[in-house]
User: Fold this.
Amino acid sequence: MTAGPTQVRENVRLERSKEFTNPDIDPKFFDFYKETCELLSKAMHTDTKAFILGGEGILGLEAACASLTEEGDRVLVIDNGIFGKGFADFVSIYGGEPVLFSSDYRNPVNIDELRDFLSKDSDFKYATVVHCDTPSGVMNDVEGISKLFDEFGILTVCDSVAGMFGEPLDVSNSKIDILCGGSQKALSAPPGLTMVWVSDRAFEAMQNRKTPIRAFYANLLFIKDYYENQWFPYTMPASDIMGLRIAIDNYLEDADFQNRHKQLARATRNAVEKAGLKLYLESGYSNNVTVIEIPEGITEDEILSRLRDEFGILISGCFDVLKGKVIRIGHMGENANKEDIAQTLAGLQKILESHGIKLACEMKGEFLLSC
Ligand SMILES: *Cc1c(COP(=O)(O)O)cnc(C)c1O
Assistant:
């Protein structure tokens, strides 16, 4: 029950055991890859072309920054979370100058404040923003933020690795130029793949660079015309992509997917708050993960190791500035089911109470009542 990688359904796991063809030379694989990418565009309600890259979720963030950034480019980095701030590193590595727009980690980005900031300084080639910043769980209005950037002529790179699928996201109603996703969060395929949706104008910006892209694996121009050229820059992990395809089908066939995420997340927060525990966020709660402050009298390690050893349940702690301060229940994708969340809350309750921490209700019962 971590905030990713999430549980993987049997049909996805089995698909990965099937025979596969040579993805470098078999035209059937190119068709299969293209169809799979088209389903990804459909899932995000857009004609914007999607691509699957052979590498973990971080590859998409790095590929976006590698492909767009030239020496000295100013890039606006929206920092209201740990992943948000982390984009500054990718920008610097590729020679850009990151400029942070920092705001309170307990709330989503305030669009009016961002507008005020941009009216004074908008000389940025692109900006980065995170949809669901998993360490705190905060959800940003990335559709609205990307439209604001567009008003100022700034391209948008959006990390929705932990947001997409569980949270509504309509790319056609946005100005997102490079959208990044991963296989191992709400889509519930195993870790190992990145998905990126790249707009025509993002590709134009790459083609109009004065200097070449300083990357090979992370160079998005190399994958752009794979179908016309019947050529991939590296051998595609065929079995991983076959599994991903089934995970996408699972998502598209499940009309209640997002509604279920919303209801279960609301019921989880309700149970936690009624029990007297404190949510980390003040607003902007995501449907994919619930982030709870660790009450006094117990440590992160005590909660995580006892849940693991006595109940067989893994949840997430946190890192960086939130290390030791919060625990996180990931209820996205296959984790988004009543039984598993109820058991997690029951286990958590037993552990906290055995440490003398009094809770005001029985969380499992409260959760089941409200979902
Ligand atoms: C999981 C995640 C990624 C991918 O990072 P890994 O830590 O390598 O799994 C990127 N961005 C966000 C917001 C994520 O939650």
Remarks:
- The longest helix spans residues 257-274.
- Residues 224 and 235 are 15 Å apart (CA to CA).
- The chain has a mean pLDDT of 98.
- The longest strand covers residues 176-182.
